[in-house]
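I have been asked to look over a protein record a colleague put together. Alongside the sequence sits a line of tokens, each denoting a local backbone shape. I have pasted the whole thing underneath without changing anything:
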Amino acid sequence: MTNRLFALALTLLFTLAPAAKVSAKTPAAPADWSAVQTVSQGEKVAVTTKDGDRLKGRFDSASDAEINFTHEGHKVTLRRDQIKRVEVGHSSRWKGALVGAGVGGGAGAGTGAALLSRTDHLTLTAIPAGLFIGAGAGAAVGAALGLGTDYDTVYEAL
């Protein structure tokens, strides 16, 4: 029983773990400013200046010469020659799924243990059953909600 539980836990762990990048070579970041101009209004952006500052906010617009976005409630306009990198953000489903699985699994195992202590009709399988049901439900909710923001580079100055 313990070996099966261990094997199932390892299988779940390796299934949910993000895949490692196959290529050791990182692709070059795009240097095409037109990619910045195609970003949708309201998307999360992170702009790194050549001075080293990193400003995060919501994209407003971009022209051939500058980018406009809202940072901490203030409108910011930066010239293209001041910018080192522009990144667009999206919510991280993997992080949400992993955190949700952990929280749900813990809650499910606790529920199984509580039920086991209050009745004579259940066996020790109630704890791992609660753990796996809770982990599955938690992973689904966590993936649906997402957790944190991952950024993809759309422009990097040469």
